[in-house]
Amino acid sequence: MNIVCLDMEGVLVPEIWIAFAKESGIEELKRTTRDEPDYDKLMRFRLDILKEHGLKLKDVQDVIAKIDPMPGAKEFLDELRSITQVIILSDTFSQFAQPLMKKLGWPTLFCNELVVAEDGEITDFKMRCEQSKLTTVKGLQSIGFDTIAAGDSFNDLGMILASKAGFLFKSTDAIKAEYPQLPAFEEYDEFLAAIKAAL
Prior knowledge:
This protein is α/β, with parallel strands linked by helices. Helices cover about 45% and strands about 20% of the residues. It contains nine helices and seven strands, in the order βααααβαββαβαβαβα. It has a seven-stranded mixed sheet, sandwiched between helices. α3 (about 55-65) runs parallel beside α5.
């Protein structure tokens, strides 16, 4: 029995923090998991910048509301979900992901939670579990699933390498060079064909 585990940002939707950096004009917020492998360090850095600029959860959510899935992402996901089970494994947060899940047709999403003060300030974050993507893939394997995983960033490599088939999608040249054994794709049609072949 197969289950496909996909990253969200950079694979199905644009990077939330890059969109917010452009909208707010805060260049430092363009850093993502493509640049910083340590997610905890990256999120602490982001929350410090939000605090410094007096930005609240609603400011980020207002930008997310304007983000659309990447062209072809919903069609790709719809077709994939018609032939196999799919779970989106993301290091994002439920408070960010909701409008994006709606635009993608409400696929199953496992992500994390923000800790938000009464005034709307994001004060902290709670990760679902340690190394959430890899831990989830191993959990699925322990209950009888063969996993096929794909993503674009450093934080996806654990689940990709632990799966029976793993792919890079719209990844960086640096990651592709470091992991030449992983098939890398840029277009949804060839990506879908590769997943189908692995099922």
